[in-house]
Amino acid sequence: MAPLLLFLFFAYAVPFFGVARWSVTLPEPGVGQYQALVLDPLVQSVFLRTFRICLFVTIAAVAAAYLIAFVLVRGTPLQRLAVEFCVLVPFWISVLTRAFGWVALLSNRGLLNSWGQQLGILSEPLALVRNEFGVVVGMTHFLIPFAVFPLASAMRNLDERVLLAAQGLGASRSRIFWSIFVPMTLPGIIGAALIVFVFALGFFVTPAILGGGRSVMVAELVYLRIFQSPDWGLGSAISVTLVVLVGVLMAALWRFIRPRELAG
Amino acid sequence: MNQRSHAAEIKASSVGKSFGNFWALKDLSLDIGRGEFLTLLGPSGSGKTTFLMILAGFTKPTTGRLMRDGRDITPMPAEDREAGMVFQGYALFPHMSVEDNIAFPLRVRKASGDVIRRKVGAMVERVGLRGHEKKRPAQLSGGQQQRVALARALVFEPSMLLLDEPFSALDKSLREQMQAEVARLHRETGTTFVFVTHDQTEALALSSRIAIFNSGQLLQVGDPREVYERPKNRFVAEFLGEINMLPLSGLSFDGQGANGAFEDRRIFVDETGGNLSGKDTLLGVRPEHMRLVRSPEGAVNALAAMPTGATYGGSATRLELATRSGIKLSLSVPTDEANAALASEGPVWLTWAPERGFLIPPSA
């Protein structure tokens, strides 16, 4: 434990405190950068867009992951194997490759649009990428596996007899699903949603590629403030704000479900 | 609750269930009468729970048919069977209050709010849960959870109630209390009860009939007294309680009964024998039907045995004995008698009436 803690301290804590110091010292000491952050309409709109995208991504990823987890836990052995494979494969492919993969699929000359046009379904290409839609698709795809694990774990822990009891009492399949199965796996749903949301907040590569510079999210804004329009103070203040937000959400996550249940 | 609930009559014919090559239940034919309290008794893995699951509709039988009131229900799914079920561990809905748990089967049947309120209220009253309606199952004791499970299974007036080892998690005194409660609910509702247990005392105390299972087979069905006092084979005899067994030789039947030799004594049994052959037949006598006496005079059946030990058990002491040929017997006697027997130098005598003995065919 000790070496790991030491590593984390030097690799993360020390640099973070450096960034936190910049946020109140650059260009001059004070909380001016935080005031600017609250007042700057650009920063505001980026935060707003980030929350909006994260919300869509969370809903889409958790819904998809719920179905996947359901098959993973309750499907036939063959279905389980297939789903397990499909969930694990994306982990072996880098986030960069996957983002470009989506560009290849969704761009104006991408597979979807060219097929659509060849088949005569589309008269002109749909704007599927270089906008928020593309960002949501790419991020959702990336985050689904992270939601599958807590959901599958919640479903696995569910006492089979409770479902049998509901069936024996006369409940239909859809009734059992909505009145028993979903409420009983709600802690897993909340856990999965928080994980996805927290991960989504800090996304950088996927929105940078699939957003095409038009759908800038918070992490990309930090990058721009540090590397392109040198404004280290504001960039640092945004970073600190993001870390605090993630911290608050993580604390909420810890309250809702015990870490054991996340491990799967 | 009034007596509106209709009690089902079940006929199982040649019902079997296999998992691959393993037969969990073999060729079971059994009639369950209207309003009867039938206990399925057997060790774990004997097929009793498999049969209960087939009755509930959770398990599809591999062979055979199941009729309810003259109608074939073999392919009917569980949700259409109108059978209340109490699971081992109760299987309550943890996210619902006591009230909502009990109301669930009524809501599923789209009962009106008024009907639900009235029936749930009556059921809460009946199982003694007044004041706990708003609690979650996790806030209740084991006995209270059990009551919720019973109320939930009975509130829709099912034509049969299936109970799967419902008392296995309760301590002894609570267990006895709940047994009395289940017996009362059976009397009051008049519904057919099918109860699974591995506890023979529970089975003897509660049932109108007992079906004894072992390794997937139904061995014997009968009322508690019949199966206890006239077990058809060695397994049933041993499973239902303590038993003393003596090998009889030269068994012969004479119209009124049978007699055979054990050691140097002739032993009489009130049994006409049926298809028993004389070879390797055992005589069974329940320990409580044997008496410890000073001399064999005047007794029809008597045998000499040496006391070998005693286990103190509070109200009575279990005395261990061995006959001359080394057959071990046990007997439940008052502690003083056990001590006197152990203190005496020679053998003691055991006597029993001919009608207390029964013949056990040699086990296959």
TrEMBL record, chain A:
Family to which this protein belongs: Belongs to the binding-protein-dependent transport system permease family. CysTW subfamily.
What is this protein called in UniProt?
A: ABC transporter permease
Q: Which UniProt keywords apply?
A: Cell membrane, Membrane, Transmembrane, Transmembrane helix, Transport
State the annotated membrane topology for this chain: Multi-pass membrane protein
What is the organism field in this record?
A: Mesorhizobium liriopis
Write down the Pfam families for this protein, in alphabetical order: BPD_transp_1
> Keyword Zinc-finger: yes or no?
no
Q: Where does the protein end up?
A: Cell membrane
- Where does the record place the ABC transmembrane type-1 domain? 47-253
Membrane-crossing ranges are 50-73, 85-105, 133-155, 176-205, 232-254
Automatic annotation (TrEMBL), chain B:
Task: Report the Gene3D superfamilies cross-referenced here.
Answer: 2.40.50.100, P-loop containing nucleotide triphosphate hydrolases
Q: Which residues form the ABC transporter domain?
A: 10-240
Question: Could you tell me which SMART domains the record lists for this protein?
Answer: AAA
Entry GO MF terms: ATP binding
Instruction: Report the InterPro entries cross-referenced here.
Output: AAA+_ATPase, ABC_SmlMolc_Importer, ABC_transporter-like_ATP-bd, ABC_transporter-like_CS, Mo/tungstate-bd_C_term_dom, P-loop_NTPase, Transp-assoc_OB_typ2
- Which keywords does this Swiss-Prot/TrEMBL entry list? ATP-binding, Nucleotide-binding, Transport
Q: Which Pfam families match?
A: ABC_tran (PF00005), TOBE_2 (PF08402)
| Family the entry assigns | Belongs to the ABC transporter superfamily.
Question: What is the name of this protein?
Answer: ABC transporter ATP-binding protein
In which organism is this protein found? Mesorhizobium liriopis
